[in-house]
Amino acid sequence: MAKTAFRRKTYQQPLAPASPLLPPWPGSAGAAATLSEKVYRAFRRDIIHGVFQPGESLNEKDLANRYKASRTPVREAALRLQNERLLRIVANRGYFVSQITLQVLNDIYEFRCAVECEAAELAAFKGGSAEVLRKLADLSAVTCSSEDRQSCVRFIEADTDFHTTIARLSRNQMLVQAVSESRSQMERIMFAAIDIDYFGEAPAREHREILKTIHDRDPKGARLRMYEHIVQSKDKVLGLTGFSNPRR
User: Which of 34, 54, 63, 117 has its CA 20 to 30 A from that of 95?
Assistant: First the structure.
């Protein structure tokens, strides 16, 4: 059985609207008001926020009760979450929250290096408006404390906005989609990491360094700083979870 990266406390949370930072499902324009979309967003949020633990078995009837819906919207949401690798559907057994294993961690960080370094380089090459650069500066100033869980939640939301905004500066829609889709996995890791003291000043400082290279229109520097930022995150997560770091 694969070793699981995170075993942590469960934080039971009431059903709440999804973060506005969550990217829309492709082709779902205008669907946010439908019950199916609401169930999907709430179910996705609960997995990412750790309400449901890695490996946990979930019952379709219980999920329908939780989200105040029939089984059909739950089934539709489950299929979408399986496509996002957040859930496994096992015939005649039910739903299982995907594990966060060493292989999963490596896959996520390798993917991030591939797409986000390219996005940062293009962002620096093409530049951004003063308004967007101010937004990135505001996001890079967000910090958090392990003693204040809500500050960590705010940081995670700002982190997602920071990285997806850089992707949008690349003006490459395939990169934007790739970065946005990877955030569900990254947010899940970050919410789990709150309980193992992952956060500190380093991520905010690294964000400011990335922003400086974009502001200075330094594509090579932006690629390098983004790479260093992602690798530092990977090394810290692997160290805190007790996994050895394979050769990069």
Answer: 34
